[in-house]
Amino acid sequence: MQRLRHRHLIAALAVSLLAATPASAESLYIETGRLIDGVSNDVRTGQCITVQNERITAIARCGPAPDGATRLDWSAFTVLPGLIDLHTHLADLGQSADLAAPIKASPAETALVGARNARVTLNAGFTSVRDVGTYRGLTDVTLRNAIERGDVPGPRMWVAGAYITIPKGGGELNGVVPHEQLPPDMRLGVAATPAEAAARTTFLLDHGADFIKTIATGAVLAIGTEPGAVELGVDYLRAVVAVAHARGKKVTAHAHGAEGIKNAINAGVDSIEHASLADEEALQLARARGTWLAMDIYNGTYIDEVGTKEGWPAEYLRKNRETTDAQRVAFRRAVELGVNIGYATDAGVYPHGMNARQFANMIKYGMTPMQAIQSATGRAAIEMGRSDIGAIAPGRFADMVAVKADPLADITVLEKIDHVMKGGVMVR
């Protein structure tokens, strides 16, 4: 069985390598039907986009194509920036009923699974992701680097390297073996003191992390932790923030409970993941400080339906029920208050490639279709501190998607993207 699985992994790698390196980007002149640029509320028609050397160089009324440029006819489509998901777990196995799955898979197998996840995500129209942690520490760095080299196809990745978490906290693999028996690469971010948290932050940044992910409260999908319980306190979080910000890197905090959310904001983190039990004070504080919320408001439905069917741990299902509706109430209130909200799904808990399913929930719970689209384009780029993605504008990467229907009339059309382009190269 092991030998057969090894052959399957080698075959999967071969397929990925064959599909990895697209033709070199050429000079393009793209004729659009409707154009949503990701930053304005305008929908323009009759616009043509000039692309050279992976980047957009001009947008103007259509006319003759520039010399040497290939004309691409997308006049029957709505064209948008490539989508951005701010909360994914590409470099991991995905959620299941088997608590031990992450430790059963070697780092090599985990990386191969990550390559598959990356390809599926890109084909779904998500050309950039923030990957917010993996049990196998630094596997996400390896995957990001492979994509950047062109070894495997995938979205642009910004990665956390590992979780900064207390021992036995929400970022640990709990309930499988004694923690001291876990492989070292599964405990790269475990910190028992603020000084250790600072040291772990330095280690991860030195080894390729683009930002830092902290676990400020317990988790839904971790044995023995409670979402409302504080784990990394303010002193830990401040130690992490001081190191990361001194190096120009952002910090995000996994935080379900209101107290943990407020601790994280007061410590200076840049964004909050989940924010499920945010109270009015926490939301007002986030608005006042400009802190971003990354709220995965589709995820609870999937966990309840599929997790129940597949026999996920009862503790997971109970905690999911206790947070799902509360999170959606908090999301609606955050929209009303004008809190910064980016598009974040927790893909990996549910299958990669289904990232766009959350759009419909964002509209159901208070956003307009344009707000939802911008949360996954221009607004998401702002949260990441990027000025090279997230918009169809001169100087940005030519990352674009095209759909035949109008997503402002029916947002679910984004669940099946017709065409994807990354850096001026057609993905499909």
The CATH topology of the largest domain corresponds to TIM Barrel
* CATH class wording of the largest domain: Alpha Beta
CATH architecture grouping of the largest domain = Alpha-Beta Barrel
Number of strands: 17
User: Would you tell me the structural class of the helices and strands?
Assistant: alpha/beta
The biggest beta sheet is recorded as: 8 strands, mixed
Strand content: 15-25%
Number of domains: 2
Poorly predicted ranges: 1-23
Based on CA atoms alone, the radius of gyration comes out at 21 Å
Determine the CATH superfamily of the largest domain: Metal-dependent hydrolases
Gap between N and C termini? 35 Å
List keywords for this structure.
428 residues; alpha/beta; Urease, subunit C, domain 1; TIM Barrel; eight-stranded mixed β-sheet; six-stranded parallel β-sheet; 36% helix; globular
Description:
It is a single chain. The chain is an alpha/beta fold and 428 residues long. The chain has 2 domains: 28-81 and 391-426, Roll (Urease, subunit C, domain 1), CATH 2.30.40; 83-384, Metal-dependent hydrolases (TIM Barrel), CATH 3.20.20.140. The chain contains 13 helices and 17 strands. Strands 1, 2, 3, 4, 5, 15, 16 and 17 form an 8-stranded mixed β-sheet that branches. Strand 12 (271-274), helix 8 and strand 13 form a beta-alpha-beta unit. Helix 5 runs parallel beside helix 6, helix 6 (234-246) packs parallel to helix 7 and helix 7 packs parallel to helix 8 (280-289). It is globular and about 65 Å long. It starts with a helix and ends with a strand. The model is unreliable at 1-23 (pLDDT under 50).
